[in-house]
Structures
1.
Amino acid sequence: MQLDFLSNTISNKVLLALVYIILSLVVAFIVDRIFIASLRMLVRKSNTDIDDKILNFIHKPIYYTIFYFGLNIAITLLEFPESIVYYLVSIFKSVLVVFWASAIFKSFIIFIDWTSDKGRKNSFVQAKTKSFFENIGKIGIFLISIYFIMLSWDIDVTAWVASAGILSVVLGFAAKDTLGNLFAGLFIMADSPYKEGDYINLDTGERGYVRHIGTRSTRILTRDDIEITIPNSVIATSKIINESGGPYEKERIRITVEAAYGSDIDKVKQIMLDIALSSDKICQAPKPRVRLRKFGESGLNLQLLGWIEKPEGRGSAIDEISTSIYKMFNQENIE
């Protein structure tokens, strides 16, 4: 009697299709409970919760993908007309693509947020470049989803891809400089050789405060209060001296003086040091110092080394200290 029941079950295609659907649901449930649960146990050992969030997004698409295979077999067994099978399978594939696209999109956003976190200083994706990468990712996921949906409906995408390739080449040549500045700006923001408010020097001669870092250009305010806009592609290939970089913004200045041979070297050093210590433009820590650098052709070459608070104060500090040294040397009859 059991053999007759099994034979009737196999011959009854509707019932067999239902069995495949139920089996696919059971397998999907088992995978969801066991496989995903095992992965969750592994990712819990990590230091971040990003993998837990991504698993929450992708476990449903995995479940529905397994269910789709059983559903596909069931539709085939029912021997519907080809047109109905085509539409049903295409619809199910499209829905599956939407599920996966949604999960990948959410996972991508979580990953970008985690990568651009302020505590991750060495990350390529920074707060300023976050929106750009988000938009690029959204466009990429959308285009790939459209591609697979078109494949689900057996649409030949070769001509579309070829047209898109030709169009991208034409646009690339037409906007070569703009794209160069764009990518240079992204790398500047990500690599952070300087930031807004820093005092920088370029080997092209520009010098001043960084007012704004954009995706196309960087704006610098010079000491003459003139704003200069420099394309990022130019800055990307230039040598950059960031005077505001390092452990602090202080900068050391050097003032070289030549005293005639026969001068009291200790007195000369003390005069230069006292002038530096009494100036409000020179930092007291680190302390200024005077060094004998070399014996020149006509005198002793001494150098005063002192620190200033801000890079832009270099000119006025050197002027003040040099003037004071000259006056004091005249008073002390030091040639």
2.
Amino acid sequence: MKNLVYITKIFLFIIFFSNNYVKAAVKNEIIVNVGNQIITSYELKNKIRTSLFLGGIELNQENINKNKNLALKSLINYKIKKTEVERYNLDKNKKSLNNHLERLSSKYKTNVKGLIKIFNDNELDFEMYSNEIETEYLWQNLIFSLFGKKIIIDEKEIIEELKKNLNNNKGYIEYELAEIEIMSVNSLDDQNNIKEITKQISLNGFKNTAIKYSVGLNAFEGGNIGWISEKSLSEKILKLLQKIKTGEITEPIYESNTISFIKLLNKRSVKVDESDLEKIKQKIIVSKKNEQLNLFSNNHLSQIKRRYLIEVK
């Protein structure tokens, strides 16, 4: 009798182990190889569910299907960035990650501990989400370390232009902007992605679409760039902004490796005062540096992506 009980326990254990093994196998089914990294079906599912949740979008099959392709592309970029930052053995910046999580927590009127509970209650993988955010900050640090010395800002030209405006009693215009930036692939894919982004903006709003799909440095802030002086903007972007009204979005802006959508949130006239020259100059310099870093980031990602063998299962 004891042997029968023992055998029964063994049998039940085997069934339990087998069932959990099968579940784990399904959970971790490999769907894409990205160099030496993999993307599993579980990761894709979590990415889509997390994006929908944070965007305040209903979780249903229709929305899941709409988000699948862009979520997968976002994961591919994440895996490439992850490999690169690991290769350079960068120190982790916990402060930036914690600040991001605290800002996100405040959106739900809680703290980070409460945010983790919200993720768990909604069956979302918090660790996977935080790892992706941390990798993005590490990637930004990598880009700065690689290209920071290549940033060229003519401070003398900026201050001369500001003094000229001061002498002529002229001010300048500042634009409050938000941006969605996606990678440019090829003509057909680009057109499809533009249609999809336009559709997502219409359905879910600019901010939520930026959080989910933008590859820009401000994606996690809903694409918000803040107030930018017209002196900091390229001639092409400035002309497009001058054509639209507050609340409207520019036509797609093609750069060498990216396509951008810029939303005009607000604008204001700023008078130049002698005492404000240095402060205004520094704001313009920071804006120009960020613009150049963003360009370096996209170019670098596009270039190294060619070295990766990406296999979709």
3.
Amino acid sequence: GIMTIMGDFLGMYAIGSGATWYEGTDYTNPAHRKNMLKKIKEMVLEFRGEPFVLLWLLGNENNYGVANNANKKPEEYYLFADQAAKLIKKLDPEARPVAIGNGDLLFLDIYGKKTKYIDILGANAYRGDKGCGYSFWQDVKDYTGRPTMITEYGCPSYSERMPSGQAELAQAEYLKGAWEDIKTNSAAGPGVGNCIGAIVFEWLDEWWKSYDPFVHNVQRNWAGPFPDGWMYEEWLGIMSQGDGTQSPFLRVPKKSYFMFKSTWKK
């Protein structure tokens, strides 16, 4: 019963475009566009016959412009993303929906105007322990009229200000609040009604993110609405690897795991 969302980076981090990191993907460059469409075609042809594919997902916060120019040329980026979605629909006989992985709602108005083949707005959104809030869902409805999903939401289980058990509890409470907002704004809820689901970020702590995979790093990565005001990207899992001595095989459920186990049974 487990299904998978199949995705392509669509030039994020210069992946698939043929560009170097420092050059970055250029969404007006014919060669880069050709390379990316070729990769998408290969993906769809390889996996379109698999029953476990739920939908196709394009990009990963490309609108933030990391090793690409989507933040400088958003109209060109969204037009190209829509071209990619059109290609997928042509190749996929199952007619599975196509989503885009946006960084929050940046360039939402341009996305709404420039795309017609992308079915779902996916947003990586970290807005706090009450979720995204009414205005988020209403803005998507007003500008696009299409369903949306949260393609990333999460909270670290580490805090400089708390012992580990308390920090785990804070993570669980944050994720529960975010989930309640998602449920409220789904079709069955009393909110805006355009949310079709969400992806918890993430299953397992990623020790490699601060470049030393043998150390569970506690450096601050960026400021945000988290228990002590900082994101610790190596601590986002609802599963840990313990002290790492059995890495990468050990899985230790955190309090947030049991919170979801309980919540999702209701």
4.
Amino acid sequence: MDISNNFSGAHRPHFNVKAVANLVGVAPVTLRAWERRYGLPTPQRGAQGYRLYSDYDVRTLRWLKARTAEGMSISRAAEHLMHLRSSGADPVADAAPLERAEGTLLMPGMAAPNVMVQNSRGEPLELASLWSTSNIVINFMRHFGCIFCREWLYKFERCVPALRADNILPLVLGIGDAEHALPVATQLAPSALCLVSPATTAHTAYGITRGSLMQLAGPAVISSVVRAARSGQMQGQTTGDYTMLGGVFAVDMSGVVRYAFYGSHAGDHPEPDTFVASVRSAFGIS
């Protein structure tokens, strides 16, 4: 059972303890100690018993850490927060997106970058113009000739009807121009809206980086070539920067990231059998 379906908004649990430790800058052992001693925060438990934290939990921890940085003891900070909440003045109730530290990855609860891209006719548009009317899923392709991206688009096309049924707009964003984009998008993912970026600006804004030698040509990549070829895909013309990795993001209508997937190597993409369920859960769709 996915417990996140029982919560909504800032209280939906989706961060594991490692992610929270990175976001807050507090060691996992300290997070567990604060929970045990002071009852803050109150993470939920996943199917395997692991702690799952919400945006609200992260803001709670950041507030507590800020008070200790000011010289307040953690016990006093926790007591003060509980007193404020009991009086109806919760200082962490603000539903603003979580702040993203410079150079870090995007994570659920953070504001999505509103970058300028182009549609398949080469006309400029902002991503915010799309998520302002619909929840969206953005597939960042490595480049339009990438055999792995083509494999993923072929699989993603089968996910599109379920996404559109829940008013989720599917997008494909690749590096190149319309000349390279249209043949690929119309053949492999005709039900998705195809976007292009002449450079790596959009990818970089979303925290997608260039891969290392192992990420571009290591054993996992070689194995992925065999897998993609067996699905009937072939390598095409390379466009843009072939060293970039890929990623998939779900952004809600307020411009907040609700799902983030970063490829660990060139051939890495989400598991199609569980992808739709993961995205629907991230948007709080039961």
